[in-house]
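Check this:
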Amino acid sequence: MKRVVEISDTISDLMNILVLIIMFALIIGAIGVLVRDTILFYKDGFSSGLGILLGSLLVLWVLMELLHTQIDFLKGGKFNVSIFVLVALVAFIRKLMVASLKPERLEIAYYPVVVIGVLSLAYWLIQKADGSDIKEAGHS
C-alpha cells in the first residue's frame, strides 16, 4: 500500500509540473497574441481594435492568475475555487466586449450580461465565505 501511495505522489508531482509547463507556454502564447493585437490596434485604428486588445489582455491576466494559484497550491496553500469562477467571469466579459464590436449582433449580449451578474455574485460569495478581501483575491 505504501508503494501505491508513493507512485501516486510521483504521478501527482509530474502532472503538476506538466500543468506548470503548459501554463508557461500559454502565457508566452498570450503575450504573442497581445503583441499582435497591439500592433493591429495601432495599425488599423483605435476604435475597432480596442475590445479585441482588452480581451487579449484579460486572457493574459487570467493565465497569470491561474499560474499564481497553481504555484501557491504547490507551496502548500489551499486550493482556490474562486479562480475558476474568475476565469469564467473573464471569459464572459471578453465575449461581451467582442459582441459589442458588432452592433448588428448586440442582442446576443443579453445572455453574457446575465451570466456576468451571476458569476460576479458567486465570486463575491466565495470570497466572503473564504474571509478573503476581494481586492487581494489570488494573492493571499
